[in-house]
Design brief:
- The chain is an alpha/beta fold and 193 residues long.
- The chain has four helices and six strands.
- The protein has a six-stranded parallel sheet with strand order 1-2-3-4-5-6.
- Helix 1 crosses helix 3.
């Protein structure tokens, strides 16, 4: 009974945009969720929320924040693409996250991902990110897509990344100079595509 009550409390505290997003993409109806549905949603491991401009959208509105994922402790794969997200700090509450897709948003900073040390895939292309420094401790990254942002430096990547990081896409980034790419390839052993 306590879990059921906490699931209902969680649902009732969600912003309307998130209730609508979950209704459209997970519950697949607009009725009040059942206890079973809430329990399943609360314990979901994979969530895909593709906004209306995505190639294969599953939503007709754009989310403006990530508040709805805050209490989804079992998420390991999260897609929130083609939305209006600008802040990602809330992802720090998702310790099991392995894959994070936040491409085509309005993100300016990766602050919040520093604690996601099990993260293997990070897709943040087509944003307004100006630094990749927060990935410094994410040495389990296998794929990192950060092209079409505002980065001028690859500070944050270390030699420890070179063991697993086999797909690093950083071009184009208008402010990223060729000498910085060469430095990363020579000193860190990371191929910059």
């Amino acid at each position: 009974m306590e879990d059921i009550l906490s699931y209902h409390n969680w649902w009732n505290q969600l912003e309307l945009q998130w209730q609508l997003a979950f209704a459209k993409t997970v519950l697949l109806h607009n009725n009040k969720p059942t206890e079973v549905e809430l329990a399943a949603l609360y314990n979901i491991t994979t969530l895909r929320l593709a906004g209306p401009s995505a190639p294969y959208p599953n939503m007709q509105v754009e989310l403006t924040n990530l508040s709805g994922i805050k209490n989804l402790p079992n998420l390991s794969l999260l897609f929130v693409t083609h939305q209006q997200i600008s802040n990602v700090e809330i992802v720090s509450t998702l310790p099991l996250l392995k894959s994070l897709f936040l491409n085509n948003n309005c993100i300016t900073s990766l602050k919040g991902i520093e604690t996601l040390t099990d993260l293997e895939q990070l897709y943040v292309q087509h944003n307004q990110i100006n630094s990749i420094k927060p990935v410094e401790q994410l040495t389990n990254l296998r794929e990192f897509y950060v092209q079409d942002n505002c980065i001028a430096s690859l500070d944050g990547l270390t030699e420890k990344h070179s063991d697993k990081l086999t797909m690093f896409i950083c071009r184009p980034n208008e402010q990223l100079k060729q000498k910085e790419i060469i430095r990363a390839e020579r000193e860190l052993g990371i191929i910059c595509r």
